[in-house]
Every structure is written in structure tokens, then in C-alpha cells.
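F.,

This is the one I mentioned.
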């Protein structure tokens, strides 16, 4: 039935056959999707789906005999007359007056029927006045009504509504409201299109940004298509072509994503990226997955959308608010300030004088109050891309300007981000251009390589900003006294620049960094430091997190590598900034403590002091004793416990933990029953659990078994064995349910672990095979097990690397318990979705090579999914 026909309002009209209509709609939808898969005609699919929904709803409208004075109106995306395969359907039942009870029942029946037809309906029922009131108070309603069109019912009523809505429309207020809404939306997605699982509709640079422009220009009467905006002079022909091309790509991406998922799906999840890339025609290349190629294409499209939409929005603002667009400052013969933006005086300045291309970025850093680059400047940079060639990169003037940008006391992060957003950074540093949109498949980084680098640089800069000194006070203190901190920014810029090229990125990055330093006239001393930092940017975290810092030989080797305090400080600052720039999940207070301890111990050795574990032990003890006195623990009460603890215990614990554990155990040194204590941990919503009990071979496994059954994930563990045969174990755990607060379960955990350990040893239960996260399933890490004797032949070191999952630690512990292998110490290291755990084992049986092979084999089987 034609959607524009008025419905039969007779209550005697035959009820429509809902099942038949649903089947017909389903068949039509399948036919359209099949045709799209065969021919790839995107508009035929999206407009065809909208037409089929129009036809179905119009039929239902007529069958429900709604009032002849009412109208069915499509709004939102459906109002545009295009639908993705599983988009929701937004409709408005427009009324002349408030409905009576009979009309309400008919409307309810119609909406219910729409759901029964398999349509994901979002509905509203309003009079014209109510629509205007809602639009005035809610910009979301305002936006959806802006794209309305009549599907069925009273055409006159809809025309009156359209006229009233247009009269009430305030383009300036709408522009301001949509900009604020866009900023909130961008903030929700970390103000970046470069997350590894972006939302192709809502993330910055996604379809919503393009839709927002059309909404604003429609409201202002400037046009509703890129060609109309071009004819009005808001964009150039080239920009209109770029916008149209990227919009088509994003729409095609989203459409295929819906079809592949079989539901509304706008997030480019890892699970679907490979299949989606294959649907879109990407093919495997050497060292390049199809998903990687597709995502890189997406990031470049999102970047272009961000650039062009910024230009367009500024041009629209200038036309809507012409009185505020005058020149407020003159900076030079080439640059002025307009509306807080840096604007060029002549459109062809960058083409005529390429040496000026980097100048606005330096001005952006140097001039307070500047918000960014104007649309005219951005457009000129976009049009001057061909001028950013090898001669431009080699020009001494440009090299000097670029180094000046890095050396500024403020604004470095913002300037480099702007350089990247405008693609100038990638054209100046070609190796940086190669990593723009480069994904990382290590379960550790959550950003593309270019965004990770800029995040590390941002972290480094924050150390030097007074307002952020409270975040990492020790780092802020160190960078304040660090001469020429810009050297650190260069190292940060190059530390991962060789990712994705094959080979060791640290070694390849060294060559890039050395070449940059030579080309930019950086002196020999600073060049040596930059190159050394790029080569060793992973070393400090590996020593702190994987090696025993109580071993003087390990510290001596690290000190010999570092050589002097300047190198040590630089490496420490880069390491902290690097770990923090990988993922919000990776950094925690425990890693911070390990790195700071390594820094301080190494600094003492560099100062001429021998790394004396006994001196460090004494210092740690004295600090812990001071805390115990504050808590009124009797003088000398600690001795019985401390006499049973070795040097390693005091070097692995900080003074606050030593004092807490001592206070809890001072009267229980030879306790016949388990002593278990729990308190909130240093990491948000974590729980620190102390277990003190007579040691036994299956003890660690029994504790891990409890954590496994209780949904508690072990973030860190410190395992200690006293001289008189007691285990003093310290765990940092968090609950799998984020709503379960650590403080609320502390008493329960204490009681249940005590009860479990007090029972006679029984057969350990089978570990749960917890499901891997989506990320781990998409990028499975190869499980690795390495067992070797330590340098002194006293213990065996077991290293385990695998995808993290519930029950993993218990699986490892159970294998050790089954072979009755004692655990002297453990370091549990969770790196995002991956774990790298190290266990110090003691058992004479491990001298048997056959047992070693059997243990490694069983361990690999245990950690495999």
C-alpha cells in the first residue's frame, strides 16, 4: 500500500494479518540484503529498507483504524529515509489534540503491532504543541524532529507541524547545543577515534560527526548535502568529494557490520574485524592481517572526517555569528588571530612559502589563549600536502622550527597532537606516518601505535606540569631537576616508532632516532642518551617486574648498564610514562613501587655505595618500627616474628605492609591455626589478603582454589616462607563483580579462607576453565613455560606467560602441588589481558631432568585454554 494514503478510520476495518506482514517484511529485508551482498549497492539497501518499513507501518496504521486527524511521522535516522539492516525505528504519532481513551487504546495497539512485526520501535505520542515544548527543552528531541517526514495519516497536520517547527527553530542556539553535545560524546570515547575497538557511529570521526554537520546546516538553512554546502562556499569541491567518499566507507562498514553480527552492532569488536575485513574485500598481505588493513583504513577515514568536520564547523560558526569573526591580534605578516584561532592572511601562503607550515604550531604553543587553527588555516594545510616533500623535510629552517616546537616550556603535547591531526607530523617524520593507525596485537596496548606514542609524550609532559604534580610526585620532582627535558620528549617520540616493520623495534628505532638527532644538530651527549633510551626503554620494567631486586648481582648488572644518574632518571621517567600509556588496566601502585625501589637502589650503587641488602633491610625495618610505635605496639614485640624472616621478605615489602603484617601476627608467631587478615588494597576496589599458616606442599594451591571458587582474581602475590616453616603470603585480589566492594567482603574472605585451611588436606578440586576475554580470544597469546636453575643453584625459577583467565593461577598452583614442589616466592604480573608470572621453587626432586620436562609439559597443558 502507498505510504501516503490516508488510513481507513472505520473501526470495522479488517484487522491486518500480523504474521503474514512480518513474514513479508522479513522476506523483503532478506532480498535487499542478498542483492547488496551480490552488487554492493549501498543506497539501494538503506533506502530500500526504509521503504519496506514505510509500507509495513502504513499498512499497520490503516489496519488499526487510527484517527483521520492523526499522522504517523518518521523521525531520526528513519526520518532521513535510510536504515542500516538492524537500526531502530523512531516514529512519532502526531495528534491534533490530546487523545481520548479509545484513541489511546488504538495507538497502543498500533505500537504493539509494530513490535510484533519485528521492528525495533522507539515511539512517542505528542500533539504539535507538545512537540515544540519538548524540542525547546531537549536538543535530542529537537534533532530527531529536524529529520522528520510523514509516513501515513493527516498530511495537513504534518504540514502545520513542519511550519511551526521551522518558525520556532533558532539555528544559533541549535548550533551551540549540538557542539556541547558533541564534546560530551567525544569525551565518552576518550576524545580519540584511535581506540582498538571504536564505535564507527559514535566515536570521534564516526558517522555521527557527519550527521551533526548536516543537522546544523539544515537548521541554518544552508543545505542538507555536501554538494549544497559546496555550492554555498562552506567547503571546496575537493573537500565535498572527500567527505562523501569517507561517509560512504563508514556507512558501508556499519552496514556490513550489522549483517555480519545479525543485530544492531556499531562497535568494531575484535571478534568481527577479520570477517568484516574479508566482506569488504581486504586480502591478506605479507605481515599484514586483513583486519589490520581494514582498521588502518578506518582510522585514516576517521582522521579525515575529524579534520574536515573541524573546518566545516568553523565555517558554519563564522556565518552564524558574523559579528565575532573579526581580527583581534596580528602575529606576523602571515598570521593573525580570529575568534581565538590562528588564521593565515593569504590562502596560498603555505604553497608559496612552505617554510611557514610549521610556524602556526609554534605560535599555538607560545601564545596564551589560542584555541587552535582556524578553518582557513586547516584548509590551507590540507591543500599544501604536496609541498611537504623531501626538500621540505630537509630544509634547515623547518628542522630548526620542529626542534623549537619540542623545546617549548608549554603546549608540546597539544602541538604534537595537532600536528598529527592535520597529518603534518606524519609528513615531517615519514616513519611516524607508517605507524598512524597501526594496531598492536599484544593484549597489552589499547591504543594504536601513534596514539600510544602521543600518550607517552603526554604523560611525560604531565610530570612537568604543576597542576598534575600530585599524580606522581616523585616523577614530578625528578623532571624538575632534569636538564633539557625535551631530550625525553624526543626519546618518547621514537621509542615505538619502528613497531610493525618486522624485527626488534627497539633496534630499528635506535637508527631512526640517531638519524633524527644528526639531521637536527643535536649534540653528541644528548644524541647518545636519546638513542640509548630508545634501545633500552623496556629494560627497567623487565628488571623491576621479573627479576629479584634483593639480589646484589642483578642490581649491579643494571647499574653497569645505566652508568650514571642522568641515564637512570631518564629511563625511569620514560618507563613510568610508557607503562601508563599502554592501558588504564596495566598501571597500578604495586608496579610503581617496584620501579621506584629499583631507581633508589640503583642510584645508591651509582653513588658508590655497594648494594647491601642488610643496610636496606635495616632502613626498611626502622621505618616499619616507627609505624608500629605510632600504633602502640609494645617495644620489642616484633622480634619473635622478625627473627624468622629473611632479607628478601623485607626488601620485597614496603614499610607500611611490614608494619601491618607485624601488628596482625605479633601474638601468633607459632599459631596452631591459620591467621587470615584482609583490608582494602592500594588499587581501587582491591583487597589485600594476608595468610599466615604452617607451610605444606598444597598450601598455595588451596588458597588459589578458594580465590578461584569465590570469583576473586589475583593481581599480585608475594609468597614468603619463614625459617620455622610457616608461610607468610600476601595477595592482592579483586572481585569479578565490580559492584562487589572490597571492604564489604573482607570479613567473609578472612573467615572462609581460615575455615578452608583449617580442614585436613584433601584432593584438590579440578580448576575452573574460565572463559577468555573477547580480546584474548581474538588475539591468543602462545603459552610459554620456562624452568631453569637460578645462578646459585639454590632454587629453580619457573616463568609462565599466557592469556589471563579466571582459574589460571590455581591451574599453575595445582600442578606444583601434585608434584609436591615447594614454593619459596612468587611474583604475579598481570599485563592487561596477559600474565607473566615468576615462581621461585625449592625441591631436590627438580634436579631430575625427566621431572623438569614432565613439569613443563603438564604446566603448558594446564595454562592452555
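My design for it:
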Amino acid at each position: 500500500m502507498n505510504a501516503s494514503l490516508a488510513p481507513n478510520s472505520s473501526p470495522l476495518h479488517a484487522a491486518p494479518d500480523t504474521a503474514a506482514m512480518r513474514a513479508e517484511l522479513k522476506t523483503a529485508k532478506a532480498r535487499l540484503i542478498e542483492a547488496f551482498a551480490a552488487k554492493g549497492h549501498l543506497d539501494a539497501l538503506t533506502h530500500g529498507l526504509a521503504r519496506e518499513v514505510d509500507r509495513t507501518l502504513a499498512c499497520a496504521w490503516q489496519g488499526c483504524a487510527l484517527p483521520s486527524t492523526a499522522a504517523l511521522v518518521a523521525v531520526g535516522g528513519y526520518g532521513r529515509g535510510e536504515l542500516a539492516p538492524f537500526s531502530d525505528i523512531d516514529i512519532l504519532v502526531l495528534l491534533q489534540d490530546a487523545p481520548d481513551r479509545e484513541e489511546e487504546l488504538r495507538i497502543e495497539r498500533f505500537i504493539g503491532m509494530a513490535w510484533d512485526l519485528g521492528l525495533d520501535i522507539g515511539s512517542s505520542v505528542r500533539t504539535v504543541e507538545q512537540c515544540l515544548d519538548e524540542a525547546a527543552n531537549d536538543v535530542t528531541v529537537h534533532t530527531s524532529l529536524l529529520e522528520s517526514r510523514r509516513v501515513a495519516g493527516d498530511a495537513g497536520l504534518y504540514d502545520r507541524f513542519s511550519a511551526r517547527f521551522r518558525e520556532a527553530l533558532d539555528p544559533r542556539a541549535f548550533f551551540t547545543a549540538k557542539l556541547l553535545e558533541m564534546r560530551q560524546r567525544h569525551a565518552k570515547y576518550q576524545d580519540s577515534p584511535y581506540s582498538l575497538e571504536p564505535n564507527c557511529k559514535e566515536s570521534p570521526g564516526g558517522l555521527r560527526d557527519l550527521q551533526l554537520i548536516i543537522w546544523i546546516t539544515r537548521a541554518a538553512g544552508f543545505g542538507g548535502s555536501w554538494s549544497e554546502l559546496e555550492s554555498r562556499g562552506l567547503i571546496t569541491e575537493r573537500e565535498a568529494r572527500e567527505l562523501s567518499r569517507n561517509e560512504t566507507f563508514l556507512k558501508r562498514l556499519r552496514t556490513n557490520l550489522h549483517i555480519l553480527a545479525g543485530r544492531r552492532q556499531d562497535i568494531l569488536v575484535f571478534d568481527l574485524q577479520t570477517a568484516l575485513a574479508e566482506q569488504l574485500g581486504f586480502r591478506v598481505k605479507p605481515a599484514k592481517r586483513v583486519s589490520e588493513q581494514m582498521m588502518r583504513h578506518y582510522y585514516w577515514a576517521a582522521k579525515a572526517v575529524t579534520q574536515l568536520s573541524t573546518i566545516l564547523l568553523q565555517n558554519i560558526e563564522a556565518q552564524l555569528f558574523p559579528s565575532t569573526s573579526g581580527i583581534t591580534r596580528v602575529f606576523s605578516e602571515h598570521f593573525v588571530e580570529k575568534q581565538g584561532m590562528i588564521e593565515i592572511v593569504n590562502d596560498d601562503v603555505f604553497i608559496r612559502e612552505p617554510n611557514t607550515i610549521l610556524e602556526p604550531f609554534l605560535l599555538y604553543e607560545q601564545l596564551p589563549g589560542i584555541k587552535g587553527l582556524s578553518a582557513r588555516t586547516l584548509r590551507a594545510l590540507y591543500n599544501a600536502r604536496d609541498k611537504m616533500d623531501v626538500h621540505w623535510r630537509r630544509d634547515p629552517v623547518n628542522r630548526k622550527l620542529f626542534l623549537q616546537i619540542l623545546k617549548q616550556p608549554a603546549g608540546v603535547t597539544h602541538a604534537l597532537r595537532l600536528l598529527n591531526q592535520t597529518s603534518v607530523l606524519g609528513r615531517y617524520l615519514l616513519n611516524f606516518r607508517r605507524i598512524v593507525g597501526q594496531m598492536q596485537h599484544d593484549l597489552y596496548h589499547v591504543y594504536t601505535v601513534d596514539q600510544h606514542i602521543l600518550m607517552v609524550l603526554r604523560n611525560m609532559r604531565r610530570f612537568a606540569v604543576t597542576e598534575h604534580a600530585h599524580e606522581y610526585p616523585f616523577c614530578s620532582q625528578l623532571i624538575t631537576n632534569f636538564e633539557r627535558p625535551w631530550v625525553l620528549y624526543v626519546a618518547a617520540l621514537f621509542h615505538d616508532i619502528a613497531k610493525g616493520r618486522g624485527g626488534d623495534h627497539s633496534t630499528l628505532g635506535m637508527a631512526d632516532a640517531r638519524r633524527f638527532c644528526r639531521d637536527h644538530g643535536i649534540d653528541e651527549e644528548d644524541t647518545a642518551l636519546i638513542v640509548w633510551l630508545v634501545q633500552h626503554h623496556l629494560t627497567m620494567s623487565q628488571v623491576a617486574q621479573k627479576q629479584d631486586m634483593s639480589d646484589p648481582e642483578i642490581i649491579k648488572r643494571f647499574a653497569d648498564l645505566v652508568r650514571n644518574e642522568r641515564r637512570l632518571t631518564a629511563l625511569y621517567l620514560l618507563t613510568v610514562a610508557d607503562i601508563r600509556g599502554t592501558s588504564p588496566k596495566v598501571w597500578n601502585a604495586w608496579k610503581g613501587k617496584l620501579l621506584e625501589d629499583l631507581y633508589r637502589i640503583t642510584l645508591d650503587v651509582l653513588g658508590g655505595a655497594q648494594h647491601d641488602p642488610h643496610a636496606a633491610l635495616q632502613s626498611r625495618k626502622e621505618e616499619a618500627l616507627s609505624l608500629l610505635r605510632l600504633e602502640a605496639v609494645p617495644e620489642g614485640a616484633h622480634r619473635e616474628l622478625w627473627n624468622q624472616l629473611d632479607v628478601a621478605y623485607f626488601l620485597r615489602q614496603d614499610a607500611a605492609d611490614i608494619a601491618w603484617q607485624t601488628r596482625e601476627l605479633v601474638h601468633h608467631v607459632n599459631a596452631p591455626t591459620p591467621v587470615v587478615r584482609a583490608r582494602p588494597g592500594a588499587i581501587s576496589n582491591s583487597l589485600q589478603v594476608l595468610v599466615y599458616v604452617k607451610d605444606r606442599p598444597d598450601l598455595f594451591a588451596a588458597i588459589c582454589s578458594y580465590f578461584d571458587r569465590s570469583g576473586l582474581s589475583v593481581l599480585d602475590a608475594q609468597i614468603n616462607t619463614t625459617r620455622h616453616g610457616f608461610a607468610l603470603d600476601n595477595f592482592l585480589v579483586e572481585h569479578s563483580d565490580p559492584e562487589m566492594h572490597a571492604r564489604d567482603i573482607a570479613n567473609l574472605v578472612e573467615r572462609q579462607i581460615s575455615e578452608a585451611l583449617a580442614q585436613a588436606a584433601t584432593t584438590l578440586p579440578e580448576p575452573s576453565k574460565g572463559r577468555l576475554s573477547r580480546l584474548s580470544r581474538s588475539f591468543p597469546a602462545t603459552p610459554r613455560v620456562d624452568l631453569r636453575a637460578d645462578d646459585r643453584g639454590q632454587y629453580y625459577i619457573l616463568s609462565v606467560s599466557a592469556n589471563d583467565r579466571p582459574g589460571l593461577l590455581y591451574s599453575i598452583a595445582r600442578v606444583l602441588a601434585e608434584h609436591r614442589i615447594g614454593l619459596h616466592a612468587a611474583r604475579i604480573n598481570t599485563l592487561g589481558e596477559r600474565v607473566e608470572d615468576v615462581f621461585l621453587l625449592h625441591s631436590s626432586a627438580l634436579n631430575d631432568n625427566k621431572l623438569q620436562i614432565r613439569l613443563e609439559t603438564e604446566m603448558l597443558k594446564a595454562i592452555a585454554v
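The CA atoms of residues 138 and 177 lie 9 Å apart.

Talk soon.
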